[in-house]
Amino acid sequence: RAKGAGRGTACFFDAAMDETARIRRELGHDLRRAILRNELSVAYQPLIAARTGQVAGYEALLRWIHPERGVIGPATFIPIAEESGTIVDLGAWVLEQACAEAARWAEPLTIAVNVSPVQFQLPNFCEQVADVLSRTKLDGTRLELEITEAVLMRDREAVLVLLHRLRALGVRIVMDDFGTGYSSLSNLQSFPFDKIKIDGSFTAAIEHDEAARSIVRAIIGLGHSLNLPVVTEGVETEAQRLIVTEQNCSQLQGFLLGKPGAEPSSAVLPAEIVQLDSARLNRA
Ligand code: C2E
Ligand code: MG
Ligand code: MG
Ligand code: MG
């Protein structure tokens, strides 16, 4: 505890930390009732095939509208839900909503659902997924589960078994936010991933930062040599889209192509842009 001159400052920070902790506790409490009170919803963001400009599928993104505080982003409330264990219910809810939604689509597009490390530790997670698939009558091959490398930090042997069991249902496993966090290339060798998503923080930098461009090029190349399609997240500008498309990235996701929305939008690239691309790429 600080004394003397620094004391006022220390008290100020203590107070601010108390306030943050209090809000977190309060949100954690509110979150437990959010499902029952209909405060949660799912937004769908399209994933676009880079070559054709067509929608290949959607990612389900959880949304919470708090009755007093308004919109709270998942980056804020997911960690709180993970800490309190509420993520187990939230995760089950999103999975069910997303699969039911996808089962209603006219086209057999894929639906990607983010899965928390906490859910991955549930002994019955695979059964939960199998149940949802059969209840919603969604073919397992249409479901993608997005996990981050944090999942792989726990009991690696158990995770490996679980991934194989999920894939036996036809479900695809996607490595999300690749290149951040605990990235280790050996994870790509040791675990049966079906797709890699390059984190949006790299995409944001590729136009102006040679190093970011090199990293993205390397990840896409790595994906090719491992036979794994690569998605670029966070594509916001035409210049970014061109750079990753020329590097043969498989799918694109980002505000340029379509924002997360309550209704899956049928965003596609204008045909003339796709033609321009293929002319350019064929020349290359
Ligand atoms: P994520 O899975 O990497 O999802 C991508 C995030 O980037 C989403 O943020 C999306 O709205 C945002 N995004 C998409 N395109 C662009 C773009 O062009 N520019 C920028 N700046 N951002 C873009 P969101 O919806 O706020 O979600 C944040 C994170 O929260 C997700 O990152 C995911 O890790 C987590 N999350 C969201 N929904 C769920 C869920 O249902 N379960 C779990 N466990 N986590 C979730
Ligand atoms: Mg994701
Ligand atoms: Mg991501
Ligand atoms: Mg991310």
TrEMBL record:
Record domain EAL: where: 24-274
Record's keyword annotation contains DNA damage: no
Signal peptide region: none
Keywords, ordered alphabetically: Membrane, Transmembrane, Transmembrane helix
GO CC aspect terms: membrane
Keyword check for Disulfide bond: no
Protein name per UniProt: EAL domain-containing protein
Natural source organism: Sphingomonas alpina
Full protein: residues contained: 506 to 789 of 789
